[in-house]
């Protein structure tokens, strides 16, 4: 097997809390607070780290825009 060739779909990009905070324009602490309160963009745990699927974060923002309409 040649590791230089891609055989499947590209993995979805994962963002760390700092990336998401920068994208949303909020402090990282706010993301952690939202997680404890069970709202905010969905995240997953990779080992001891929180990671966010970029597409899920963008989808969450879009759903928030619909709530305001």
Automatic annotation (TrEMBL):
Coiled-coil ranges (or none): none
Gene3D superfamilies membership: Winged helix-like DNA-binding domain superfamily/Winged helix DNA-binding domain
| SUPFAM superfamilies documented for this protein | Putative DNA-binding domain (SSF46955)
Q: Cross-referenced Pfam families, in alphabetical order? A: HTH_17 (PF12728)
- What domain of life does the native source organism fall in? Bacteria
- The Helix-turn-helix domain covers 18-64
Output this protein's name: Helix-turn-helix domain-containing protein
């Amino acid at each position: 097997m040649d590791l230089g060739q891609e055989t499947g779909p590209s993995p979805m990009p994962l963002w760390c809390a700092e990336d998401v905070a920068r994208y949303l324009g909020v402090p990282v602490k706010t993301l952690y607070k939202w997680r404890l309160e069970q709202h905010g963009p969905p995240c997953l745990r990779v080992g001891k780290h929180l990671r966010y699927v970029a597409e899920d974060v963008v989808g969450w923002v879009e759903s928030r825009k619909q709530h305001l309409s």
